Amino acid sequence: MKNSIYIFILALCIYSCGTTKDRKLDTTSTTATSDTLRIANDDLEYEIIIIEPGFNNWLVTQQPRGYYNQQFLEIRNRQYVIEYNQRVVQPQRFDPNLYIQQINYDQYTDYGYEVNYLLFNYFKYFEQRYKQKFFVSRG
Asked: Would you say which domain of life the source belongs to (predicted)?
């Protein structure tokens, strides 16, 4: 598959109850079932699946869509993905149960605002929930 992005983050438990909600944003479809979030764009052949208890409830407490511009989100996501992927290939240093699979994020692909917004917020959630720090604060 060309230009594909797969995130398959597994949680200890997946809630199976709940309703399904579909939203269409441009050519991106988003489906949220309980604590499973799927974002897909068939034209670009990518898919993001976030399976994480509590993520949807946490997301509504964060800055709303539109607060950050897409360029900011893309830059931060590139930084997060690089650091995350480095941790995946170092299971002796980083918990392989947290860093399961590399993320294929192509900086030259326009994934759109929704994908970048959700990916950015997932990284922030991941840092908080699992007490991980991707970047050292300066100052």
From this structure: Bacteria
